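Protocol step 4 of 5: obtain the predicted structure for the target chain.
Materials: sequence only (see below). No template structures provided, no constraints applied. The aim of this step is simply to have a reference model before the mutagenesis design in step 5. Sequence pasted as it appears in the construct record:
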Amino acid sequence: MKTVICRDKDGKEYEVPASELVIRPSVYAVIIRDDKVLLVHQWDGFDFPGGGIDPGEDMREALVREVGEETGLEVQSGELVACENAFYRTESGKNLHSILIYLTAEVIGGELSIAGLTELEKGWTQDLPQWIPLADLTKTKFYNSVDSLQIINTALKQ
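Step 4 output (structure tokens):
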């Protein structure tokens, strides 16, 4: 039987039978302007704004919705930057095989806000999203399982 290693938010590892995984597609925005990238707080680090794609939802529609909920900004989705796999264990013990899609996006309206966060999301952030200077990214702690700097560099080349 095939198994995978899932990690929880604290990095603890769990060996899980692949048959117990729930597939969860998600989409994230790489928004760069004025030599800064927009990032949202996640516990004690940062991540790209975005999240789960609802059943039947187009990934670009999900990107616009998720960015709006997490940042208060209205965006237009752009080009595919990267697609990665990740294996997570949620706080409730659910094991996820996440398919992480990263798209560029452009801000077309709105103001920074966290008013659209769910109660669950408020559990890991209560701070406004931040425009982080590209020059400061090597000092920035990312809270995700991907090579965030590589994703940003790829987006910059598009």
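Step 4 remarks: The longest strand covers residues 73-89. The beta strands are 3-7, 13-17, 22-30, 32-33, 36-42, 45-47, 50-52, 73-89, 95-110, 130-133.
Proceed to step 5.
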